[in-house]
Amino acid sequence: MIKDAEFLNFIQDLDHHFTGWDFSRITASGRMQSHALPWSLGSVVVPLLRNAATMLDMGTGGGEFLSSLQPLPKTVYATEGYKPNVQVAKQRLEPLGVNVVYFEEDTSLPLMDHYFDLIINQHESYSAAEVKRILSDRGVFVTQQSGGTDCYGINESLGVPLNEEFAHWNLAIAAQELQDHGFKVTFSREDFSPQRFYDIGALVYYLIAIPWQVPDFTVERFIEPLYHIHQMIRTEGYFEVQQHRFILIGEV
């Protein structure tokens, strides 16, 4: 039985309720840090939304990113498929005039055909066929994705394989999929860079917030490898893994 007081305090400090996709508890405090990407999704999107009459944010989470892009176009929708986030998103976005829509299937969005001049997507799954259906003529689709090998070092250290549902996902496959559905890919880039956790509590918080990284994760199930990582952090100062990100812009 592990009796390390520091370790136990870190892993028991999970009373904060996670809402939206707000990681500020571990990022604002510097407990988790990621290397800067060689692009900025916001800087890519802002010039495009200034020329759009209608816009959609796919998988808005709690609306954190979308609300940061103000002023927004006249007509803006946001979809969210995780029920606990829907009310959070409505509270943040409806005062800005955004229509928040709950959905269940990527392949069947409750949205009109050929309606949106701009669709943005940050780390959200999507159906290329469905994106094309709801995108207007000459519309633009911008997506930043987490690749299939994102933070694979966590899985290695916990002794579990990568999530097979996403392991194949990368820039080449995503770009080809868009092209197969009639999109012209006008910009693409992929990046592999460090992500660091400076205490074991930050890693546990991350794994609870991102359940697809290690499906069925619980502290109890992985207590021994978590303690090994804790000891590594004590020695090295941090636990480092490699993030996998890519960005695509597609036009019809």
TrEMBL record:
Enumerate the Gene Ontology biological process terms: methylation
Q: Which InterPro entries does this chain map to?
A: 23S_rRNA_MeTrnsfrase_RlmA, Methyltransf_11, SAM-dependent_MTases_sf
Q: Which CDD domains match?
A: AdoMet_MTases
List UniProt keywords, sorted A-Z: Methyltransferase, Transferase
Q: Which domain of life is it from?
A: Bacteria
GO-annotated molecular function: S-adenosylmethionine-dependent methyltransferase activity
All copies of domain Methyltransferase type, residue ranges = 56-136
Name by which UniProt lists this protein: Class I SAM-dependent methyltransferase
Q: Which Pfam families match?
A: Methyltransf_11 (PF08241)
